[in-house]
Write a structure and sequence with these properties.
The complex is a heterodimer of chains A (377) and B (225). Helix content of chain A is 37%, strand content 23%. With 377 residues, chain A is of the alpha/beta class. Chain A folds into two domains: 246 residues, P-loop containing nucleotide triphosphate hydrolases (Rossmann fold), CATH 3.40.50; 109 residues, Roll (CBS-domain), CATH 3.10.580.10. Chain A starts with a strand and ends in a 7-residue tail after the last helix. Chain B has a single domain, classed as MetI-like fold. Classes of the chains: A alpha/beta (377), B mainly alpha (225). At the A-B interface, helix 2 and helix 4 of A face helix 6, helix 7 and helix 10 of B.
Chain lengths: 377, 225
């Protein structure tokens, strides 16, 4: 647990980078420090491992004042990853990862074994990469090694300064998702700096939004989106904050049973009668075992045709874990405006429609109006 | 003239070997001292908050380079005799060459250390390396190739300057040159000049190899790309 009490930093030139900041990051919590550049988020993070000294207040880690500890011992107990990665080009991948174990004088074999383990954790084949040099890796691979390095000696706390900043959006997205999976396993206490609201929403358990050295709002992502505390927060999260909220939900959270599911062997005229009764224009179609085949429209149903002859195969489908914002864009590619949600075995488990998303958005907007934002800190 | 010079080489290979070895010995002693001093000074002035000192040191080292070698020998002879040390021969020449060799070594050490990517230093510091560990484990390995390039420059330059050392009795390949000038023996001048040049070329080549060998492998790969 990290606790910042009345923390302040005034640089020697008189700039007040951080003012009277109070913040508590819980054990195992992924806390994002968010804000425009110059808001003091990086300064705040660097004060936790004393790369920048405090000029006011106290910082406690597990109840111990960090200035009561030896500076280098403190840092060796905190993982540190930075945007520019800063891998050492003259050292191999494993030597880089084992930097802190080396400083802690672990036996060589243990250092290497640890590096192997961490490489696998960040999704790299240890056999292929362990003896390579950073210059032989792609940008994304370097970032992965950077993440592995900050986990080197298994520190309980990680400080990460835009660790996915310097890579292309596709790789970044992938690394973010993978890192979330890793975090679910290792449950570190994380202070993560970013200026990217989308990254913050995606990654953070809680977001500390800062402006000009002050903490403006400290809350979980959905509260930040639905109840921005003031004009600054509202502007920072963006006019599309309601849409951004979709990112926090997954298809499985909102999907519903399809209005009608037809099996491929059924009689066309009976099906037609049922659809007319419920006034449905289309129906989902599955095999007997539940595997999804596509959909049929009422007008195509005819006495003389077998159902298997009139299937429109799906152009797009999604999985239960697809975020709603992605589901929404996929929906625009679906002729019936409804997205089939399939499990790993391609069985139809539900549908998401425009109506469902509208209801979700309506709820969020409603919350924002009815619940004026409470004091979060 | 070329024939005469060639005959001289054929008839006196022992002398030429002698001069070459003397020359090499002077260079070895002078540049080893210059390397040790230069790297230490370079590391010192690359420290945080020493920019002013660094400017001054490099300024004086540059001025040192502009002093003609004969004048420097003269000055050193004065100082050494006042200290009752041998004022001619080996000692003043070695001191002079050490001073000449300092500039490229100090400058390269300083620049190489200052130019190590700050992200690496921050990463090292953030992971709990002490300043000494940052120097030894990050800065120096990355600076070594550039330092070696400086040393190479110093050695090659000093091979030429050392020839003038024969004028104050330090021996070496300057000897046939000065003897040739005194006796109107163009062939001797030629022998000295050609061997000084050959020595410089060979040593430059060997130092180039050394530079490559001391470049960390991971950095070498980056250069190839």
């Amino acid at each position: 647990m990290i606790r910042l009490e009345h923390v302040g930093k005034t640089f020697s030139d008189g700039t007040e980078a951080v003012k009277d900041l109070n913040l508590e990051i819980k054990e195992g919590e992924f806390c994002v420090l968010l804000g425009p550049s110059g808001c003091g988020k990086t300064t705040t993070m660097k004060m936790i491992n004393r790369l920048i000294s405090l000029t006011a207040g106290k910082i406690y880690i597990d109840g111990v004042d960090i200035y009561k500890l030896d500076q280098n011992q403190l840092r060796r107990g905190i993982g540190y990853a930075i945007q520019n990665i800063g891998l050492f080009p003259h050292l191999t991948v494993w030597q880089n990862i084992a930097t802190v174990p080396m400083l802690k004088k672990w036996p060589k074999a243990k250092q290497r074994a640890r590096a192997e383990e961490l490489l696998e954790l960040v999704g790299m084949d240890s056999g292929t990469f362990i003896d390579r040099y950073p210059s032989e890796l792609s940008g994304g691979q370097q970032q992965r090694v950077g993440v592995a390095r900050c986990l080197g000696a298994d520190p309980p706390i990680l400080l990460m300064d835009e660790p996915f900043g310097a890579i292309d959006p596709i790789t970044r997205n992938k690394l973010q998702e993978e890192f979330l999976k890793i975090q679910a396993k290792i449950k570190k206490t994380i202070a993560f700096v970013t200026h990217d609201i989308n990254e913050a929403i995606k990654m953070g358990d809680r977001i500390a939004l800062m402006r000009e050295g002050e903490l403006v709002q400290f809350s979980d992502p959905s509260t930040l989106l639905s109840s921005p505390k003031d004009e600054f927060v509202r502007n920072f999260v963006g006019a599309d904050r309601v849409l951004k909220g979709l990112r926090l939900l997954k298809a499985k959270d909102v999907m519903k049973e399809p209005p009608l599911t037809v099996k491929v062997g059924e009689d066309p005229m009976q099906v037609k009668a049922r659809m007319e009764k419920d006034n449905l224009q289309w129906s989902m179609l599955t095999e007997d075992g539940g595997r999804f085949l596509g959909w049929i429209t009422r007008d195509d149903l005819h006495e003389s045709k077998r159902i298997s002859g009139i299937i429109t195969p799906p152009s797009v489908t999604a999985s239960p874990d697809t975020p709603l914002n992605e589901a929404l864009s996929l929906m625009f590619n679906s002729a019936i405006g409804t997205l089939a949600i399939l499990d790993d075995e391609e069985r139809l488990v539900g549908v998401v429609s425009f109506q469902i998303i509208r209801d979700v958005l309506g709820q969020q907007a409603g919350e924002a109006q009815t619940e004026p934002c409470g004091e979060e800190q | 003239m070329w024939n005469q010079a060639w005959n001289y080489v054929l008839n006196h290979p022992d002398k030429i070997l002698d001069w070459t070895l003397q020359h090499l010995y002077i260079i070895l002693v002078a540049n080893t001292s210059a390397a040790i001093l230069g790297v230490l000074i370079g590391i010192y002035i690359s420290g945080k908050g020493r920019e002013r000192i660094a400017d001054t040191v490099i300024y004086f080292a540059s001025i040192m380079m502009t002093v003609p070698s004969l004048a420097l020998y003269g000055i050193l002879m004065g100082i050494l005799s006042a200290l009752t040390l041998p004022s001619i021969g080996f000692l003043p020449v070695v001191i002079a060459l050490t001073l000449y060799g300092l500039l490229p070594i100090i400058r390269n050490t300083y620049t190489a250390i200052r130019e190590v990517d700050p992200a690496m230093i921050e990463a090292g510091r953030g992971m709990g390396m002490s300043e000494i560990q940052i120097l030894i484990k990050i800065k120096l390995p990355l600076a070594v190739p550039v330092i070696m390039a400086g040393l190479r420059q110093a050695v090659v330059m000093n091979i030429g300057i050392a020839a003038i050392g024969a004028y104050i009795g330090a021996g070496g390949l300057g000897q046939p040159i000065f003897r040739g000038i005194a006796n109107y023996r163009t062939d001797l001048i030629l022998v000295g000049a050609v061997f000084v040049s050959l020595l410089a070329i060979v040593i430059d080549f060997l130092m180039g190899g050394l530079e490559w060998l001391t470049t960390p492998k991971g950095v070498r790969i980056r250069r190839k790309r």
